[in-house]
Amino acid sequence: MAPSSSRPMRHHHLYLLLVVVSISVLLTSVPASAADELPELGGDGLHREILRDETVLRLKELGKISDGEGYLERTFLSPASIRATAVIVSWMKDAGLTTWVDQMGNIHGRFEPANSTKEALLMGSHMDTVIDAGMYDGALGIICAISALKVLKVTGKLQRLTRPVEVIAFSDEEGVRFQTTFLGSAAVAGTLPESILQVSDKSGTTVQDVLKMNSFEATAAAISEARYNPESVGSYVEIHMEQGPVLEALRYPLGVVKGIAGQTRLKVIVDGSQGHAGTVPMKLRRDPMVAAAELVVTLEHLCKEPNKLLNYDEECGCFTEESLAGLVCTVGELLTWPSASNVIPGQVNFTVDIRAMDDKVRETIVTSFSRLVLQRCDERLVECRVEHKHSAPATPSDPELTSQLKRAARSAVSAMPGRAATAVAAAAETPVLMSGAGHDAMAMAKLTKMGMVFVRCRGGLSHSPEESVMDDDVWAAGLALVNFIEQAAVSSELLLLPEAELDAAVAEL
């Protein structure tokens, strides 16, 4: 038996051998051109060329792929969406990912470590937009995630992942075309109902029709294939622009999300008597336009001053100022028939969007407004009905993921040069925010635990061509994601192996 004093020396030699061989494997696994660039490409660990410069260029490129002339519009499986799919797939491949498009049009890019049995880390956001959109909403989360994985590829860390990582560009989150949100992420989460295939857009085209036109199978069985097994997924993380003014007011580039407000979408249909604008006396009119206008104002009063209009019972009399905070109500679309200047409309319908952090508050507002609709319409001798189009409960973020993302964000912001770094001194910690906007993370929370990082935007503007995120904030978001992935999925286990496993690893190398 060798003397015990020789064992530490043997470990030392094995350690040095493993380090040398690992460095050799790392360098040979990177293409010569990339290896030559390593000293310049993120030599300071910040990877500006990828996480800022390339990411911003790609955001601009994707922002030009539109169905509209002179403005950005990219809805579910539209021609522009199909063109964007090819571009996103090419970026995923550039990051070293295996790609595919599922039966709901979601784009997937995945790296699968050899022999890994661990749960996957999913990242992403949505590729669809509203009409006359900005270029950051949704796209920022997709491209930042791709860029983060490209950094790991260039630095040789992608091959050291101990769990699968995947970026998903969801086909529909905004719900513009079919007035129902989360078509893409709900399919992955396994919560998309079969009935969705028969939902139609304004032209009468159904979801099933659109899928078939784009060579998808368009069956309930095919859509179910997009569903992920919850046991195979460990977490979902999403980068998203804030779409609000808080981070800008705090002068801080990043924040983490502790939860997403619940949301209800309604459609109100008001039927009256269509007639000639010049011949029907005012007192004899059953005008749905005037009734609809009154209902819109009623909704505003209800949500601005809920304490004055809500009829509380004993159960919900406990509403506090805090529980009512964040309540917002919006009428975003109003349509009339036949929509002529010299005709009293026969029908008016409008959309209602109600959001609140407290689900009981939201449900009470919905109930109260529905009651007021029937009451006001009865007073004006018109017929009304309220259709429920979408409802989602408030969704809390996973506390552990939130803590990890806070650390990753603060580390990234602390490392940033210039103005971003000075903000750290002014803040005790990374801001924690609630989200009033819905996100794919809400749907994915039905599948796995979720966490989100918000990126500061100018003026809190979103769903507008005036959307703006500073290039350095894009950089900070990408760096935070790199930090998070390295903490969550990159292995340093080889250097900590027991002696027998170390010997085997060295022999295999």
Automatic annotation (TrEMBL):
- Cite the Pfam families for this sequence: M20_dimer (PF07687), Peptidase_M20 (PF01546)
User: Reaction catalysed by this chain?
Assistant: allantoate + H2O + 2 H(+) = (S)-2-ureidoglycine + NH4(+) + CO2
Domain Peptidase M20 dimerisation residues, every copy? 262-373
Which SUPFAM superfamilies is this protein grouped with?
Bacterial exopeptidase dimerisation domain (SSF55031), Zn-dependent exopeptidases (SSF53187)
Q: Which PROSITE patterns match?
A: ARGE_DAPE_CPG2_1
- Localisation: Endoplasmic reticulum
Q: How does it assemble?
A: Homodimer.
NCBIfam families for the chain: hydantase (TIGR01879)
Which family, according to UniProt?
A: Belongs to the peptidase M20A family.
Kindly provide the name given to this protein in its UniProt entry: allantoate deiminase
Q: Which organism is it from?
A: Urochloa decumbens
Kindly list the organism's lineage.
Eukaryota, Viridiplantae, Streptophyta, Embryophyta, Tracheophyta
